[in-house]
Amino acid sequence: MNIRETMELWERDNLSPYASLSSMTQGRDREEEPCDIRPAYQRDRDRILHSKSFRRLKHKTQVFLAPEGDHYRTRLTHTLEVAQIARTIAKALRMNESLTEAIALGHDLGHTPFGHAGEAILNTICEDGFAHYKQSVRVVEVLEKKGSGLNLTKEVRDGILNHRTSGNPSTLEGKIVRFSDKIAYINHDIDDAIRGRIIGENDIPERFSDVLGRSVKERLNIMIHDIILNSQDKPEICMSPDVERSMRELREWMFDNVYKSPAAKAEERKAQQLIVSLYGYYMDHTDRLPEEYLLMMEKRREKSSRVVCDYIAGMSDSYAIDKFEDLFVPKAWKV
Length: 335
What we know:
It is a single chain. By secondary structure, this protein is mainly α. It has one domain: Hypothetical protein af1432 (Orthogonal Bundle). It is built from 17 helices and no strands. The protein has helices at 3-14, 40-49, 52-56, 75-92, 97-106, 115-125, 132-147, 154-161, 172-195, 206-212, 216-231, 241-259, 262-265, 268-284, 291-299, 304-313, 317-328. Helix 8 packs across helix 9 (172-195). The longest helix is centred in the middle third of the chain and has 24 residues, at 172-195. The radius of gyration is 21 Å and the shape is flat. The model has no long low-confidence stretch (mean pLDDT 95).
C-alpha cells in the first residue's frame, strides 16, 4: 500500500459519512496514472496553486481600483481568506479539506482586471456574454497550460462553477466554499471600507451588529461558528435563519453604502473604457494576440470574440494598463 492509498484509507475511516472521499471521485476528463503520494483532490489543489492564473490574482482588483496602500485586499488575498475560512469549517465538520481548499483556491481564477467593473463591461461587449464563475471553469479546463487545461476532477470544477450565490454545488465541500466566499468578502470589504474611510464601524446598522457582532473579528467568529453548529452531523451546510438573514441583508447594505459609493466607483468608468478599447483593438488585430491564443482559434476553432475575451479577462490590472498605454498613449519622441 503506497502513501496515497494509506491517506485514502484514513479518509474512509475518519471523515464524515457525508464527506467526499478522494477514492470515490468521479474522475477527470482525461484519465491519468494516480499519484503514489497525493490523493486526487490534493493533486488538484496543487495544480491550481502552481497555475499562472492563480499567480495573476495578486494584481487583480477586489473592490477598490488601484488603492494607495499595501493592506487593501486583492483578488489573491480574498482567495486565500476564503480558503482559510472554508478549511476551518471543513475540518470542524470532518469534510474533505483538500477538495474544499481546491475549490476555494480556484473559484475566482476567471475574474477580470478591475473587479466586477471589468466583468460587467466584458459581459456587455463580448458576443457570448461573460460571467467570472463560468470563466473560472474555462480557465482550468481549457486556458491553462497553453490550451490543455489542468484536467481537474469533476467535483472541483463543479464547486468552482457553483460558488456564486445562486449556485448549488453537488458536494458539501462546494457548499462550504459558497458560504465562505460571502463570509470572507463581506468582512474584508467592511475592513477595507473602514480603512479607506468610506464607512465607520458605527455606521453599520444595529440590526446587523446585534446579530453578527461589532467588529470583523466578532463577525467572522459568529458566522463560522454558526455554520459549524448548524451543520454538524447533517447532510447539508446551513446557517441559522437569523444569522443567514442578517448576513444577506448586510451584503445588500454593503452594495448601497460601499460597492456603489463614489470612492469605490470613482475610476470604474475609466477602467471600463480601457477594456472596451483593448477589446476593439484585438478584435481588429487578432494577429497581435499571443501565440497560445492564436492556436486556440486555429486548432480548437474558437471564435475570435471568445479568444479576445479570454485574453483580456486573464490580464492583471497593471498589465491591462500597460497594454493600453503601449497601444493608445503617444510616446515621447527621441533622437
